[in-house]
Amino acid sequence: MKLTRTLFLLSALSAFAGESVRTVEMLADKDNRFKLPNGDTTLTLKAGETVRFKINSLFGGEKARDGSVHSFVVRKLRDKGWSVRLKEGVQEFTLTAPPPGTYLIECTVECGHGHDTMNFKMVVVK
Ligand SMILES: [Cu+2]
Question: Which of 3, 48, 98, 114 is surrounded by the fewest CB atoms within 10 Å?
């Protein structure tokens, strides 16, 4: 049992090492907008790819009771982990890109002026 588990972990690790995990850096800015470093207004992912998100969150005027200043939510993917509350500073998390389609990343925390339009288009390609 223990050996099986060790072997499983080893194969998982080597699979991880062989696969290049893309890091997507994003800013949840103090003007209550999501931004990509290169200024793109759409995040494009490949279906099924593993994506390491590295999000820097800045206080935009209001925060939730739990201290979150923003959140990173794709409503129709909530049950797949696409629902992360963001505290001030850099937060990293890993998600799997969903099937091809167009999605909307939304902030669900009342973060201040501009919150109602705090979203970002995500396109997933084959
Ligand atoms: Cu918000």
Answer: 3
Compute, in angstroms, the gap from residue 110 CA to the centroid of ligand 1. 5
Residue 6 lies in a domain: no
Cα 52 to averaged position of ligand 1 atoms, centre (Å): 22
pTM of the model: 0.84
pLDDT tens, position by position, 43-70: 999 999 999 999 999 999 999 999 999 9
CATH number at residue 25: 2.60.40.420
Residue 59 lies in a domain: yes
Q: How many domains does the chain have?
A: 1
